[in-house]
């Protein structure tokens, strides 16, 4: 729906007009670096253009010339924004650089500025933009565009009535019944009237749902009066009141005023129980609603009003004591039913009128299928939500079209992108940009433009229809590159923002059109599917010339190791993300990017220092260096006074910023880690960090030194920690490698009532734990490496002083690597009332004793606690239990709800095991060496006495088995499976290090008919496959360290792999078998897409005939084959998209780019990886 793009354009012009009169522009004019005449002309020109946009919005739907005019205008507005940004950047440079210049440098600078090349460049650009705008303004007469057009909007919604065809409704039965329960007379309301708000995005079915409710026969029994009003955008109390009266069969003569109508309504409702539907409400004026609602109070108690709206703010204003009902999207099945009903009915109606087969063919090949979504009635409904957004939210929402569909984004990520694009700046307002962004985000979420992700709770998504709406707003100005060829994305000269959905290998072809986007502002990598990605070197070169870039994200590219000096040319850059790259050093030219707001280097494990002049980046707000190996911070970090987030502040031994620099960073918020606290010279320096006054700090990690540091001053460390007391608003705290013997009083003090998670790690000299039991909000507690603690006693709970239950909110508790811990005193059965997970690992001296009763415990892990005796806690809610190396425990029958049990390596009598499991009828996963109940996932590990695995056809417990994993069973000889048995659900079988196993199960094809993955590792005695052959559904086979089996495969060809129609992946690793050539002709099936051969030490050549028919092969990996000399003499299959060669010295030489004798045979492959070199 391109028309909404003009609303976006109008909003852009409003912002641009504000920037023209901003302070930095006026300062440059006063400094004679900019002529005022042209800028004065720019403002009225833009205002004249803006005056005709409303008319253009309507006419461009049917007039392509008007659509072209608006696109050209939008392009010119972008250029004008870039020009003003250049002006502001020049002003910023003039402010910062003189502070760092010597006297001689200032004289040179003064001489050079006299010619003022900046002024000349700006003048010419401004003249060119004004010329374009004047030209477009002159076109308005030709196009018939009128100023200040107030015609009817083309996308106004038709009012909905109460009528509904229930045969067209799918998937709302549950929702309907939930709301009917609220209307039921037995559900008594505290208020005279109960208002039930239903909130959801447009086109989700809110109106349909209330139509179903309104027409339900129960409503007529429960209510004396009912009325339906479609309120829509304009909240008119007169019309609403009049409609309610007419719905109640009360005539209105048309001459009555609002007061008379409302008196009449009050009379009609008096003493009557009523239901009123207010559909599609947009009004957010509280007083308008109160004025209308005051006349509803004359009705009988338990009357109900149902309100449907897209906006949570509307719901908040109108509801009283009933919580908002949020309508979710339909399930996939219901969506398909709805689509099938309408799409096929429509198409069937068309074809019914065309009895001739040729007419049907014409319809099949017609342009009908190319009609965009704009022609449907789905997006026009959604455009109402967009149309009524204020200008600043229009711009923020439109930018979201950069995200691919179903992309999960974090609120902070999006706010930082808005900030980089300047969408959060307001004239004459120096307020907090992040707070403003948070408000904008909340406003859009409340209006149902964003939804919380069902996967990651910290993330949000846009519904597909909302994503389509955003894309329709921005058109070609925002592009999304998807797939190796870029997908359907078309990069043009007008493209300003570009997102890239990363592939494992982003090849040169994907970015071949990037050069067209000369004014590109955003290059954003969205999170890849792959664990890591690699990119063509061409991309970096192409991006360094994009001087308008504001956002540059190259995150996740593992072959980026160096960054060019000419990064300093990207003067407009605000947001740079190099997270999880292999970058080793950043050029100091980065410190001339004075607009830079966010620098993200998370997970850059090879990065050991930041540029020396970081203090010049005075606009820096976010610095993420978590997961780097920095040894120190650069000098004078305290000059970055606006810094809000610094994930890690690293204190060097003698150089770099000291801890007192943190005291100058008064706006720190969110999370902060301070590393290298062993280098703090004095406690007074720590006090100067002033953590206690940082009220917005939520997460704090204090780390003294590396885990292997054994030196330390206990008293000094305690004094330092005492001065690092944070504000009581803190929510998450970690203290690591602290060398003190006791913790300061503030650690565990009850005043820290907001603490929800806490960790103490490797504080090896501490002899007692703080009173964490009195932290009222503590949800998660992790304690590890406190080897000085012998007893956990009363002090842990708060010395009995707390009036409430100790650990009243704790849900997760973990103890690990407590080498000297001997006793745990649980003095009260009231402790841990909500504990759900308890983990105790590597506590070899712990003898007693576990809490007796944990009513909410769901997961219990005990490992390497050989001396721990007594009983397990009474835990009726237990779902997962893991017991390893804790044989002193006394075991009793487990709760019937147990789902997973892991007792590997436990020395246990079978009768004890049977007694434990006698009530466990819901067990799904079992890791042990005994019998197999009704489980889905079985691990059998380290069972030295196990010789046979048998299975009978009696019973059905094996029918649930999906995954069978057998490892380290050195005496296992064979499978004994009764004839007629079929384990129909097994999809994966893994045999590892079973040295005596001689064969796979006979009749494997019929026993495991659904097997998809077969992995055999280190089973040297297996030499043959079943005579019947392998299961036909096999997709993946992996074999290693099993020479007899590999020889059988290659030489005797008894495996008959070529008969497996579904096989797509074959891995053969680690073999000493003599082999001249692999693979032989027709050894492998044509369905194969991936072939991985590794450590075949005697392989000498690759058989070209064996590759000729592999027409689906995409990936070929060859590792550690020292005798392999060359590639096949003929070209490899054209389907091959990736070739990886590693540790094959002779083959590497023959495949060297442009030089090796085999290069011609492989040069057509898009991605070639030879050792560490990626050729794309």
TrEMBL record:
Keyword field: ATP-binding, Leucine-rich repeat, Nucleotide-binding, Plant defense, Repeat
GO MF term (any one)? ATP binding
Any Gene Ontology biological process? defense response
Show where the Disease resistance N-terminal domain sits.
Answer: 8-101
**Which InterPro entries does the UniProt record give?**
LRR_dom_sf, LRR_R13L1-DRL21, NB-ARC, P-loop_NTPase, Rx_N, WH-like_DNA-bd_sf, WHD_DRP
NB-ARC domain mapped to chain residues: 186-345
> Pfam families from the xrefs?
LRR_R13L1-DRL21, NB-ARC, Rx_N, WHD_DRP
Which segments constitute the R13L1/DRL21-like LRR repeat region domain?
659-785
Q: Where is the Disease resistance protein winged helix domain?
A: 402-470
Q: Which PANTHER family match?
A: DISEASE RESISTANCE RPP13-LIKE PROTEIN 1, PLANT BROAD-SPECTRUM MILDEW RESISTANCE PROTEIN RPW8
Report what the protein is called: NB-ARC domain-containing protein
